[in-house]
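2024-03-11 09:14:02 INFO worker-7 job=invfold-0412 stage=load source=structure_tokens
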């Protein structure tokens, strides 16, 4: 799946949203576009309010983005 398709899975809020966030996090280390998509997703209420083992998926996205080394890895 493309980064855009993974972002749509997250936005839809379905059962695979967590897997999509983690896949984007894995890609962010080598793909600036994936890091950018993660940054955009962290602003969405659907992600901020979604809980995964006492933490929000937004935190998972931020951690994935911070682990990236590209130009767009830094959190704005």
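2024-03-11 09:14:09 INFO worker-7 stage=emit residues=76
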């Amino acid at each position: 799946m493309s980064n855009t398709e993974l972002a749509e899975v997250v936005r839809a809020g379905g059962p695979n949203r967590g897997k999509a966030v983690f896949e984007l996090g894995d890609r962010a280390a080598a793909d600036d576009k994936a890091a950018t998509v993660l940054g955009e997703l962290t602003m969405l209420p659907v992600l901020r309010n979604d809980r995964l083992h006492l933490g929000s998926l937004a935190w998972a996205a931020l951690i994935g983005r911070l682990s990236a080394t590209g130009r767009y890895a830094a959190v704005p």
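2024-03-11 09:14:09 INFO worker-7 stage=report msg="The chain has five helices and two strands."
2024-03-11 09:14:10 INFO worker-7 job finished
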